[in-house]
Fold this sequence. Notes:
Four copies of one chain form a homotetramer.
Chain A: H1 15-18, H2 29-49, H3 55-64, H4 72-78, H5 86-97, H6 111-147, E1 152-157, E2 160-166, H7 167-191, H8 211-222, H9 236-262, E3 270-272, H10 290-300, H11 302-311, H12 325-350, E4 352-354, H13 356-364, H14 372-383, H15 385-402, H16 406-411, H17 414-419, H18 422-429, H19 438-463
Antiparallel strand pairs in A: 1-2, 3-4
Amino acid sequence: MPPSSSTPDADALFDPVLAHGGVRAVTGDRAWLQAMLDAEAALAGAAADCGVIERGDADAIAAACDVAGFDAAAIGRDATATGNPVVPLVRELTAAVGAPADAHVHRGATSQDVLDSAAMLVARAAVDVIVDDLAAAATAAADLARAHRDVPMAGRTLLQQAVPTTFGCRAAGWMTGLDTAVTRLRTIRATGLPAQLGGAAGTLAALGDAGPDVATAFARRLDLVAPVVPWHTIRTPVAELSGALGTAAGVCAKVARDITLLAQTEIGEVSEGVPGRGGSSTMPHKHNPVAAVAAVAAAAAAPGLVATLLSAMVHEHERAAGAWHAEWRPWTQLLRTTGSAAAWLRDSVGNLEVHTERMRANLDLTGGLPQAERVTAALTDALGRLTAHDLVGAAADRALAEGTDLHTQLAAERDVTDVCPPDELVRLLDPVGATGNAAALVDRALAHHDRRVAATSSSSAAVGHTS
Amino acid sequence: MPPSSSTPDADALFDPVLAHGGVRAVTGDRAWLQAMLDAEAALAGAAADCGVIERGDADAIAAACDVAGFDAAAIGRDATATGNPVVPLVRELTAAVGAPADAHVHRGATSQDVLDSAAMLVARAAVDVIVDDLAAAATAAADLARAHRDVPMAGRTLLQQAVPTTFGCRAAGWMTGLDTAVTRLRTIRATGLPAQLGGAAGTLAALGDAGPDVATAFARRLDLVAPVVPWHTIRTPVAELSGALGTAAGVCAKVARDITLLAQTEIGEVSEGVPGRGGSSTMPHKHNPVAAVAAVAAAAAAPGLVATLLSAMVHEHERAAGAWHAEWRPWTQLLRTTGSAAAWLRDSVGNLEVHTERMRANLDLTGGLPQAERVTAALTDALGRLTAHDLVGAAADRALAEGTDLHTQLAAERDVTDVCPPDELVRLLDPVGATGNAAALVDRALAHHDRRVAATSSSSAAVGHTS
Amino acid sequence: MPPSSSTPDADALFDPVLAHGGVRAVTGDRAWLQAMLDAEAALAGAAADCGVIERGDADAIAAACDVAGFDAAAIGRDATATGNPVVPLVRELTAAVGAPADAHVHRGATSQDVLDSAAMLVARAAVDVIVDDLAAAATAAADLARAHRDVPMAGRTLLQQAVPTTFGCRAAGWMTGLDTAVTRLRTIRATGLPAQLGGAAGTLAALGDAGPDVATAFARRLDLVAPVVPWHTIRTPVAELSGALGTAAGVCAKVARDITLLAQTEIGEVSEGVPGRGGSSTMPHKHNPVAAVAAVAAAAAAPGLVATLLSAMVHEHERAAGAWHAEWRPWTQLLRTTGSAAAWLRDSVGNLEVHTERMRANLDLTGGLPQAERVTAALTDALGRLTAHDLVGAAADRALAEGTDLHTQLAAERDVTDVCPPDELVRLLDPVGATGNAAALVDRALAHHDRRVAATSSSSAAVGHTS
Amino acid sequence: MPPSSSTPDADALFDPVLAHGGVRAVTGDRAWLQAMLDAEAALAGAAADCGVIERGDADAIAAACDVAGFDAAAIGRDATATGNPVVPLVRELTAAVGAPADAHVHRGATSQDVLDSAAMLVARAAVDVIVDDLAAAATAAADLARAHRDVPMAGRTLLQQAVPTTFGCRAAGWMTGLDTAVTRLRTIRATGLPAQLGGAAGTLAALGDAGPDVATAFARRLDLVAPVVPWHTIRTPVAELSGALGTAAGVCAKVARDITLLAQTEIGEVSEGVPGRGGSSTMPHKHNPVAAVAAVAAAAAAPGLVATLLSAMVHEHERAAGAWHAEWRPWTQLLRTTGSAAAWLRDSVGNLEVHTERMRANLDLTGGLPQAERVTAALTDALGRLTAHDLVGAAADRALAEGTDLHTQLAAERDVTDVCPPDELVRLLDPVGATGNAAALVDRALAHHDRRVAATSSSSAAVGHTS
Lengths: 467, 467, 467, 467
């Protein structure tokens, strides 16, 4: 027997994990409904700004545009008659406003004007949350990069140890990716979220000659971009934010993935240091990196949602027969899942414990072999390239076969010791010296990051409305 | 300011359109939670069946497994500590059961056992709803095919009129596609939804030698398939149902798309006859096919969700670090969006009004040109192929250029009238006679459909548990 | 029996339709191979720039970097030993260079450095082609908007006639969408395509202290962006271009979709005027809009490819175990399919024939009903809102029921004729006057377009290397 | 300068890695073209079977249907006039056949009949290759499961060691997943690949009353399923195979992913034993699992392609305006990428070297902690559940803190040694005894596998045409 209830059934069982952090609240029914009401209030205000209706009527409409007076579930149920919730919302709002202002509710607008504008308002609020979490994760990565700038770690390619890098260099890469995602989302937030106002066929006909001015005032009141023309069926704003969210989710997934890999029992180079989380009473050795795992999971939903939103760009004529409706759920889900990935990642990176002794131990696992190329290069001047290559290669093979290390083999090799003092051989085989330009790259990346943060702070101070 | 609330915010604003019909109720928090509790009850029951625990303890556990005693939102919130809701659910259940049976709650199982089994139970309930709607839509299409078996309609290729078909033939195609989707979903429902029981690493270690028997009893109690081995990280059951749901959604989209196209103002061959829906007080000529539009919209979300679920098949080792969690939301969404498409389509096809006079009028729009090939063929014996082809081609060109019809042109052509009596010319140009084997194909398709329905009815009667 | 051959089998059967236009040539084996060789030449040149190797050696390497000397198929076959084609390419190149410069081939680089840099070069060439086609399509749309600024056409929502717009307004919307896609792609082309140079683990270790300078010189030589740090496993450049390509494809699909819909036999408002294409000898009335159909088809492949590339952002550690290889084919396919959509769309829009008389005839199909709201508004002052609404509503219902038009009904209505002179009634019911601000929107959009084109031209003149 | 050439540019640079194995040859231009010609030959033969044309004409047509006589690139180029390659192919074939049989070439068919039927033939050949590789990989996994039935290995959940399993159990899971994919693909191969024959609007009009019989004979000649009605716009056959291929690719990805993880330097439990592959001259410790990496990469392309094919199910009316063309490339790519994944996986699993000593060493890494729960259970009878739990928990905490092992801690605990003899403590802490029902599950899975193989062999022997 399926359960049933008179109140709507939420998705609260999975949301705390999969719609984690601040993004859930700003993308729920109440947020959507308030955003639609904000659009209706701004429409009335803009009409008054342009002399189309009386200011008093606009004020009366605005006064009624408070989500507290509306029942999202009831409006949703009534939406089935026309296919969208704006029609019943306008009916409810008109009733709430009362005469005489009620004649001017929704004046000149079509349902899509209100819903699309609301979608942009909801997205803006969600992007603020997402950017905040991504930026915090970037800052946490910057702290890791700074603190571990010179800590050697096995560089790993195709999941195999290759040559050394530093953990700082890895963290600097994470930080740079997160910063790039932040920058792109901030750009779209500032310039890529347009208001929508076009009326029944996008010609603003019902507003007469004042139409274009009302549209401009409408956008200004919502603090959204005023588009060149209505974009009812030209969905680039939807697609561009979708792409940026998909990219941000992908960066989160990469970082989180790295954390889950570094946290493997056999590697143990990092762990999430949140007391009481990720442990197991029956398996005391487990330290599940819960936040990183959840970030991976949330991010995994993004690509499919981006594809859905891109596929839904094919809006027919002046209003789509399905493609528009097809955006609503994936739009919300993409904001939520990206926000969830960002929130979990902020948690994971921000609480990361770094086990530098394990990094060193893992580097030594293969007995100095990652430094083989470096030794060969150092011996080339004295022995010639081919001889050096063959000598080191043979020593490496013996080390592998005998389970010893490269130092043991090379130190027993007269041709080597003749041209390479013992101290020098030790130095060449020390991974600490084999990290190349890792530190310089960390410094460059941190300088870049600091400039971005500084620029954001000053622009936030000036503009005053970004998160 | 984002709204906030102590009770979870639902998605009730869009659900009635985008999670339409019966599928929403069977995939919500209460349904998921009850399914998990059903799994816990079955586990205890199975353990008792195999002598692992006392029957009385199993009964005590089963008695507590009622969703009414649990708070989904609270369990969801506590899920963040471990990343899944089963851990807090088991804690709550254990408390509810009380001593001494509480020692046997969740015995031998891991969280994924319960959640995966619940996912299959939720899916089964949803598939029942979906199949019911798809089958009803197929029946409605069968009725249309039968009623309009011989009604000529323009066959359209690349959105251009081609040669005639019948509306019955079109409807028979819809019906066949829907039937195929029903058959595949029924097959998976019967043989492709396995229970999950493996314990911490899939070895059933905590149940001792009784493990495999308990797993079998567990599956039997849930009326799910008993798998060969635990499928914690081998996700073919998830993938196969996903593919079938995506296919079903695609069929719904095709049919619904056709309806929106045939309902265009300029074509007007069908309309949705639901009083009070799809009209517009300010645009009295509009008859929006709301149900078909909503079906298109719902179906559009499916391919991306299928891709997400297929991408999430890469589960590491004995339990995935993210890919498992990544399934939960898309799984639910895919069931809902496919169910929504099916429910709306059932509504649309079931209420379809067919305007046969417009079908005929549209066929005549191009002045008999769709029958040009047929006339050519008929004249070939008398005139030779090349002459016939050139003659009819020239007549068609003149008809197009002068805006007359093919009959006017050919009737004025001595070479034609010499060999083709006036009645025969009229007959050749009548689209009614140009529908080929449309009627035979309708009959064949209906016979096939009737056999499928009959087979289902008798198997339902025998088995007694399919919808 | 599968066919076999010693020369590689191409995909030339479908490419002319599905990899249409200029993009195929710049994304094929030869283009990829030359791009890799360009990267090798730039690497040697950059090393010489920074004093790491002799200029003469760099010149010798550069001289050998000509695709004409290499066999793509053979290199491809040898790629299976390591999993990527750079290893055999470097071997071949080293042999071609000969002593002594051969010691410096590929110095300091890892395979991914060369392949990623080549991927950016290939993408740049493809983006140039795509931008060129999109911009030409936008220009063609601008011409249509200008020429048909005041031509009334039925505005259509949910595939139903709604209220009038103009064909110019529709074309202006197309143009604006295409311009937006062009602008985004140009921005990425200028600032979003980075060179890749990091060496085995991204630390530039093998180039010693000169590493960062060599990386900068390398980027400068390839005219690619110098990234802050190597992006071997931070794939934002791949993701951002993917998103932009997906968006561009979506815009193409929308425009092309509109064309296929407007070209329907029953609507007939546009057709593709390419002699000898899209016709049918046996169905003389058919005018298949082949270019628009092919654009729709090509664009349809983009969202799935974008999803694949976003999913593939999860690169482990310093080099991915699969996710990197997973990019190569979708990257090429996404460039090709977007380019194909753009090329076909340029063809379609550039050859579009507009049938304004059919636009007018279609507008009149519903007997003036789309102007019902306008008449109501005009009568409101004299009759009051409610009376006006009821009067016009009843007239509309009678017009629909009797198959007459709104003018006939209203002209027979004393209450109407008393307050509305005959000329005024005709004027109110004329769709020409009901297009609202369509003309003003066209003018605004064209002004915006012209500014974009002018800005591009002057910046192209200054920079000299954009298409 | 983009390279150019008069012969078509292949994708041979990446194909050997990304379109690996036998599938490339059976999905190339020659294979497609021959399949179309096979359809034309079968069509003529079927027409003769039903008395529609002379047997001699049919034979003449069949004789000309050899790919050797046709130029795929030229046909591809000419396809742009109509949008599909069948039109120029038929023209070429007609010319090749010559009078008088040429009048009967392609008789009664539309382009889509030939292309869809060819798509099924191409798919069948590719599925045979894919099934062969998947089945071989399953056999290799079965061999591993049998050989390592009792070899303990750390069970790993969320990439953390959990409790022990056996490598045989893991391999049995792989085998079962591969077998399931094989079974599903074989079922579709046998019952899900239909011929297509409907003529211009799907009514078989041009074949007169013989139409349905010709369609049946046509299917029989191609050894494809005879569908109930033409499926020009009902794309379930495409969707169902797509879903099955996506599922198969996902299983390959899971297995390959496991291999890359087990092959990590720090884990080292498996390696690919192919001499000369995956090594690095400069990094002698590297053993890149090239085949597994390539399998992961190939499989990653599948979900997006499945989504594209599902999205493309929305075919309008009697033939789609774009959605049909949109299938061709993804269909080919999905066959190739799934085939590539299967071929690489067969290689990887078939050459897998298993390092059981590393499995044991890794199990001991955590000092017996994975067996903590087992010890607790064993002490419960003597000490009571709570005391046992607390005692073992404290010992585990000390072991972790001091870096010793659980045995050291427990052996020093009087409360433990009083009730548990030394031998018993060693036994309890030995992972060999903690693998639960792993061996029984392996046996059950192998029995199931053997039955499947036996059933396939006998049915192959009987039917004689499956691979």
